[in-house]
Amino acid sequence: MSTTVLTQNVSPVRGPDTSARPVTLRRTVVAEWIKFRGLRSTLWTLVAMVALLVTVSVLAAWGTTIEMVDAGPGQGNVAQYLSAGYQLAQLAVAALGVLAMGGEYSTGAIRTTLATVPRRWMVLVAKAIVLGGTIAVVTMVSMVGSFVATMPFHATLGLELDFGDSEMVRMLVGLPLYLVAIALLSLAIGALMRHTAGGLTLVIALLLVVENVIALVPLRLFDLVSPFLPMTAGSKMLFDSDTLAAIDSMNTGPSLTPWAGFGVLVAWAVTLLALAMVSLRRRDA
Q1: Which residues form a coiled coil (predicted)?
Q2: What does pTM read for this prediction?
Q3: Least confident among 4-18, 34-48, 140-154
Q4: Cα–Cα dist 35/95, whole Å
Q5: Which of 3, 78, 245, 267 to pair with 106, CA 20 to 30 A apart?
């Protein structure tokens, strides 16, 4: 008696693809963008930033038309009015920068983020790219909105948008650069503080309280330090030559050019980001 064994070509059963894709900076940026745009705080903060820039620009242009009835047209330039709301808008930018990092520590989501991205420097760099890119784009959109909203006043003020004027170009480019630098500085402080309220308090104190107090105290040491504080140095990009001359005439300390002042602000942001990166690597989440 013989036994016949039937054989068939059976394909191996394949399970689900469990191979993990490598964590790259590009994928980390995409992940951070998804988280960033999914937060309600991001939307409302950006809306507040746009509203402040446009509203203050209109108010500044409208107020100037009233004051210059006797002085005549031709005073100021368009860029000066487009950036008139930078001091208020930077508060919204600072809040968004602190929230981008401090918010994850408040909710505990930072543990999941760091478990997913073992190379922690990628997390901070990806957040900086997403935050800086968003602030740059939204600022330029706000400037277009401010220009359209202030158009009814341009003829009265005798103003034109002249891209051949190097000073005007510097002021137009200066606003997005300034706000991006403030956003990155705030992101770094949020990463160092690991607390939203504490980080936001420190940023506002640094930008608005400390700088104004130092400017008011008549001490030689403060005169030497004041030009190198972040807002004082970086905001020089936003002023025309007449305003810069008036500022320098009241200051007995070092006088920085607009681009040198912006370099000082960038140095603040880069230094704090470097410290935040070291803190992120060495401290537990």
Answers
A1: none
A2: 0.88
A3: 4-18
A4: 17
A5: 267
